[in-house]
Amino acid sequence: MSRINLLPWRARRREKRQKHFLATLVATALISAAAVGSVYFYFQNAIEFQVERNNYLRQETAALDIKIEEIKELDAIKAAVIQRIQIIEQLQLLRPQIVHLFDEWLDTLPEGVYLTGIEQLGPAPPKVGDPPTLTSNGIARIRGTAQSNGRVSTYMNQLDASEWLADPQLVIIQTKEADNGTRASQFTLTVQQRNPLLDKLRAQRIKGTPAGDGS
Predict the structure, then answer these.
(1) What average pLDDT does the segment 14-19 reach?
(2) What is the band of 130 on the pLDDT scale with cuts at 50, 70, 90?
(3) Buried b (16+ CB within 10 A) or exposed e, 170-195
(4) Pairwise CA distance, residues 33 & 8, whole Å
(5) What pLDDT, on the 0 to 100 scale, is given for residue 66?
(6) Residue 74 belongs to what domain range?
(7) Out of 5-9, 53-57, 210-214, which region has the weakest mean confidence (pLDDT)?
(8) Residue 208: left (phi > 0), alpha (psi -120 to 50), or beta?
(9) What does the mean pLDDT of the chain come to?
(10) What is the CATH number of the domain that holds 169?
């Protein structure tokens, strides 16, 4: 029986398989390297894009901060201008106030009441809408003599009914006898000065109505 030597064939098949395995291994390594490289470059580009975006956002934020500071400065200037305008408006309305006050102090006097002195005590606490540097109201102290306590009460009622004077408060009242034998009441009271023009202006500001609108 003849014998066939299969060793060369087996060696060639083993060598072929080894080459195929190596080729597959190299291809897999190349594909893996390409995939890793692609992922690396993708994330690298994403990081660079995000860095550029962050830099852009920082620049825009800095620009907005500058604009915000400019707006704050403009708001401060606007508030100062508005306050000056309000002070000028009130000063214009305060000009005739002293004349009205003197008229009211005399027009409200009933018969039998005589004034001996008027003293300005100072401004009353400012109301809402008044600039902090100016107030329309003040407190005055009035001294006088009346023929009776009832006439003092009448005088206080007439003061309270005035548009330019309000809230009279009796400080002291004493009944004394004069040299001619008559009795008279000497009184001291305080009264709050008002300016209806400024009160109207203040109400308009609270409601948001323009100062020049008379409605």
Answers:
(1) 78
(2) very low
(3) eeeeeeeeeeeeeebbebbbebbbbb
(4) 37
(5) 92
(6) 7-95
(7) 210-214
(8) left
(9) 78
(10) 3.30.70.60
Strands (E), the chain: 113-123, 138-146, 165-177, 183-193
H or E, element range at 129: none
Q: For helices 7-94 and 196-207, what crossing angle results, to 10°?
A: 160
Cα separations (Å) of 63 from 10, 60, 69?
78, 5, 10
Whether residue 109 is found in the same domain as residue 195: yes
The answer to whether 187 and 146 have CB atoms below 8 angstroms apart is yes
Distances (CA, A) of 16 to 10, 19, 120, 140, 149: 10, 5, 121, 121, 136
pLDDT (0 to 100) of residue 46: 85
What is the structure's pLDDT at 143?
A: 92
The one-letter amino acid code at 198 reads L
How many CA atoms, within 13 angstroms, populate the side-chain half-sphere of residue 211? Answer: 15
118 plus 158 within the same structural domain: yes
Q: Token match 């109400």: residue? A: 203
Residue 105 near residue 118, CB atoms below 8 Å: yes
